[in-house]
Design a protein that fits this description.
By secondary structure, this protein is an alpha+beta fold. The chain is built from seven helices and 14 strands. The strands form five sheets. It has a five-stranded mixed sheet, with helices on one face. A hairpin with a 5-residue loop joins strand 8 and strand 9 (198-201).
Amino acid sequence: MIYIKICSENHKNALKFAYVKKKEYLCGLIYNYYTKNRKTMFLRKELLLLLSILMLGSCVSRKQLTYFRTLSSEDAKEINEHLPSLPEPTVKINDALIITVTALDPEAVLPYNLPSVSYATPTSSVVPTTSSFQYYTVDAQGCIDFPVLGKLYVEGMTQSEVINLIQEKLKGQIVDPIVTMRFLNAKVTVLGEVRSPGNYSLNNGRMTLLEALGAAGDVTQYGRRDNVLIIRDVRGQLEFVRLDLSSDDIFTSPYFYLQQNDVVVVEPNQARTTSNQSIGLWLSMVGTVASAATVVVSVLSISK
């Protein structure tokens, strides 16, 4: 019994000794790993902190993305009372106009129409051609050169006014003439922070600012909705107006309805500016951190 007791006590002591040695060994491994890699771990923490700062700097609040924040159903009556009347597009210098004259006697109206142009498709060896109407270009004096009738001053006139002018000139020459006119190059240009910047045709010569932005795919999250720039050419003089899309005041603005050749510019917000600036800073910092990490690893390898 005494021998068995002594053996069991020795076994316990041996196990306790082995446990202590194992614990010291593991602690030593952890200490050595931390000592050798603490600089690298510090650099990783710095890199994660830098990335967190860059991500926070590029955030855009919900408030900045919301249209007409103060608009309510009660405002509709007041807006409708002050809503500008839908403007009829007017002729401007350098506009391209397609004007046709028709009547019961087709032969009688031939001299008053521009001849259609026929052309063959370059890639086709087939004889049939495609016809295209010619158009009138408004010159610097605001006139068009109309067949038989000569120079006609049309700048500033609406579509109906140009039609009435030509019909009056044709009285006594053609019986019951029918005149049609449409704008060939009626467009607006949308630039800046939209999904699809470019030129967009005016439907029937009319388009609102919201319709133009919608055609361009809407303002991106990086666009300033509170400072949209409208550039308009009025008789050779440029006008610059800024509108706030977060306010319902734009509905009563004379620039709510766009005119042909208007330019809409959506500026980048602070998040976009910060993001673009941060890219260069981020790349520079990544290069610096990578170089420092390489040096640390090299020094640790030599010290081994």
